[in-house]
Structures are given as C-alpha cells and as structure tokens.
Structure to design on (454 residues):
C-alpha cells in the first residue's frame, strides 16, 4: 500500500467532489503530487459516499482501485451480516425471543393472520442492544468470550462490520497489498481488536484453534479469470471444507452468488445449513448467505429462511413450505381490487404459498407470482397497486383498458410477450402514473391489469 504524502492528501481533500475524468485531464502537475493515487482515492471516496457512508465519513481511509470498490459489499449488506452474527451468538434469552417472535411459542398465532413476521428485525435489535450496552453484565460476558475469523478478507468491508461485535477478530488474506490496506483502515476505524494475517485462508483454517464464528466469501472467478457461480468452482471450495468448518467454529457464514438455487445449495451441504438469508436492497438480490452449524437434533432439520429487502423482512421454517412453487387450491376472489408484487428476496425464495397464508392474498395464476385481494393488505413485502380495470388482449378490451392513455409503466409475469414487445403492440411511451401488468390468470387466460401505485 502506498501511503500518500502531504501534497497528494491535500489534493484529494480539495478535489474529492469533482469529476475524476476531468481532473485527470486538467489537473496541474505539482511537484510530489502522485496524481494516479489521488484519482484512485477521489474515485473510491465518491463510491463510498453512497455505498459505504460510514467509511466515507472516516478520515484516513485508503481506498483500493475502482474495480475493488465496485465489487465490495455495501454498508447495508455488511451491517446485515453483523446482525446475523450477533443474533446467532446472542444469550439464550435472545434466542428464546427469536423463536417466540417467529410465531413458534406456545401462544402461536395462526398462519393465516395477515401480518409481516418481524422476528428478524426485533431479534437483531435485541442483539444490537446486547452488544452496544457496555454496562450490561450479560453483554460484557458475551463480548469477552467471542472470537471470529474472516478467512477471505479482501478489501475488509464485511470484516470491519463483523469485527465490531467480537473481542477478537482475525482477518486472513493472501494478497499482501490488501493486508496492508486492511491494517491501515481497521486502525483508522478504531478496530483495536482486529488482527491482520497475510496467508492462505484454508491453511490458516487447518491450523487454527476453535472460534465462535467464521466468515467466508469465496472468490467467484476461475483460474482463467472468468466469472463462476457454482460453489465447487469458487475458491475456496466450501463443500470440501464443510466438516472442518463445523469442527472449528460454532457457526460459519458463507456468502454466495444470488444466482444460485438456495434449495440445491442446502441439499449439497448435507444437513449442515441452519439458516438461509436472501438479501436484497433496492429490490435487487445482492447476496445469498448460508449459516452452517452442527446439528442440534439427531434428525436433520430444515433451515429457517430469511427474506430481506431493505426494511422489509420476513422469515419462515422451510420445512413447513416445501411446496413453495405450487399454486394452492384457493380460488380468486370475486372482487379483485388490489394487486401485489413480492419483492426480489421473496421471488428468489419462492415462498409463494407462505405469502398467500400470511397475508390473505391469492396468486393470480400458476407461475405468475402476482397476488390479488379484495381489501388492502398492510405491510405487504413488495409493491402494492390498486386495480382499475382488467381485460383480455382483444382490441375491444385494450381500447377500454387504455382509454386514451399514451404512456404507462409495463411489466409482465408469465406472459407470452416481453415488456418491450407489449409496449410496442400497445404503442405506449414509458412512464406516467399508469402501471400495466401482463400476466396469466387461473384458467390460463392472458390478461392485462391496469393499475395505479398505492
């Protein structure tokens, strides 16, 4: 890592809000100014300002080249991983609260009750409080006994948030320049408990003693630099490390590509997965996180699944919803007044029967993944629309549906035309207050739903 001299630091401070490309062309050549390093720092800070605002507000952070900044975790996803760790290692009282809040206590609410389970949020808030209240004896005991290892350190964003909840935190990374960067930045962030190790993560795992928590973010590129997604094609291959991870840690959190089939990943880990976290932000799936741990009971248990999209959170026992892709026998309501589209994390989870039961809505048709209801649904985890009209694809229905409309937002689900094809057929510009959905209803009818956003 190159430490900036005073002239370069001053240049960065003066110009960090300016366009990097223009600066590269127009900046005056000043003696001792390392312009390439300065431009890297300005570009890194500009990305961090939106992606990692806490890092951007910290003086002294040194940023890596542009591609590493684009690929690193966001503050939201890094904080969420920290919340997972804190919840897993929370005292028994918190664990009991987690089960109770999930609707599995003796006073269990009915599954059909149309409300969002807030167990993930409430439990994580409890865990955050346990770690932050230094005058709590229970908190002191928890922090004093907790240790973690990040075996794939990288730029160190995830590590920096995970480490805050542990008294001992070890970062392991093979590349020396990243280790130097991490050592500097963890000190700048005030993480005195951080220990930086330059070495191979797998070798370190084999030699280290047991810890409370391990984090792994396998590299998703093969030896030729091509993008890969399958777990066995990533480095390290976590399947090969499964038994060792279970011996060396109480829990292991593995970050995987959101493109993977989580059910297959769970099956491939052969009973080691305790939790599945599907994490989205801005309605875009960013990460698939698996929590590995020893079996508590002799019989293999299905993992709990957590679907997260910003502040929308829902969790459920996957064993109870093994037919998540099926359509229930529930007929469509006579009054179809509201349309609901689940967020990206629920789409990825495929827990559509759970959504029907928990929120009192009905799927419009097989594989359509849209829901209707006669009455509005509070706190639905996704987007909601008021249905203004429903019609077929014949000219008469289309004329009635459009009623002079010249522009609309168009989406299709399980429909014979793509959104651009439907837009071209209807001769509509993009945008405006009208939302048109093309889908297939029960009975295999292709329909258009004209809606307005709630």
């Amino acid at each position: 890592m190159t430490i900036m001299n005073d002239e370069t630091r001053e240049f960065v401070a003066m110009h960090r809000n300016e366009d990097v490309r223009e600066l590269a062309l127009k900046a005056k050549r000043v003696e001792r100014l390392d312009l390439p390093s300065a431009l890297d720092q300005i570009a890194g800070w500009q990305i961090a300002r939106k992606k990692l605002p806490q890092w951007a507000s910290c003086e002294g952070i040194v940023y890596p080249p542009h591609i590493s900044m684009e690929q690193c975790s966001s503050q939201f996803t890094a904080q969420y991983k920290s919340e997972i760790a804190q919840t897993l290692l929370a005292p028994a009282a918190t664990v009991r609260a987690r089960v109770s809040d999930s609707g599995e206590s003796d006073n269990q609410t009915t599954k059909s009750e149309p409300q969002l389970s807030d167990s993930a949020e409430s439990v994580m808030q409890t865990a955050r409080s346990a770690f932050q209240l230094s005058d709590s004896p229970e908190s002191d005991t928890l922090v004093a006994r907790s240790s973690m290892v990040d075996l794939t350190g990288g730029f160190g964003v995830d590590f920096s948030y995970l480490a805050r909840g542990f008294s001992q935190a070890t970062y392991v990374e093979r590349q020396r320049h990243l280790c130097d960067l991490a050592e500097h930045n963890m000190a700048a962030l005030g993480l005195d408990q951080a220990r930086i190790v330059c070495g191979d993560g797998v070798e370190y795992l084999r030699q280290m003693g047991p810890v409370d928590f391990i984090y792994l973010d396998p590299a998703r590129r093969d030896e030729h630099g091509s993008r890969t997604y399958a777990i066995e094609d990533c480095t390290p291959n976590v399947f090969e490390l499964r038994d060792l991870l279970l011996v060396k840690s109480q829990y292991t959190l593995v970050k995987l590509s959101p493109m993977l089939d989580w059910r297959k990943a769970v099956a491939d880990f052969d009973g080691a997965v305790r939790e599945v976290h599907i994490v989205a932000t801005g309605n875009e799936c960013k990460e698939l996180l698996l929590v590995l741990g020893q079996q508590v009971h002799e019989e293999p248990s299905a993992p709990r699944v957590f679907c997260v999209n910003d502040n929308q959170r829902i969790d459920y026992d996957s064993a109870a919803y093994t037919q998540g892709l099926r359509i229930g026998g529930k007929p469509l309501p006579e009054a179809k007044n509201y349309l609901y589209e689940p967020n990206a994390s629920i789409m990825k989870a495929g827990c559509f029967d759970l959504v029907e039961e928990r929120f009192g809505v009905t799927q419009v048709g097989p594989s359509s993944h849209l829901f209707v209801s006669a009455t509005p649904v509070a706190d639905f985890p996704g987007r909601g629309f008021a249905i203004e009209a429903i019609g077929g694809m014949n000219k008469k229905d289309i004329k009635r549906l459009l009623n002079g409309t010249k522009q609309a937002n168009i989406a299709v689900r399980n429909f014979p035309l793509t959104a651009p094809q439907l837009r071209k057929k209807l001769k509509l510009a993009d945008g405006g207050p009208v939302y048109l959905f093309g889908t297939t209803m029960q009975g295999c009818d292709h329909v258009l739903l004209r809606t307005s956003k709630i």
Residues 92-144 have pLDDT under 50 and may be disordered. Residues 202 and 236 are 7 Å apart (CA to CA). Residues 35-51 form the longest helix (17 residues).
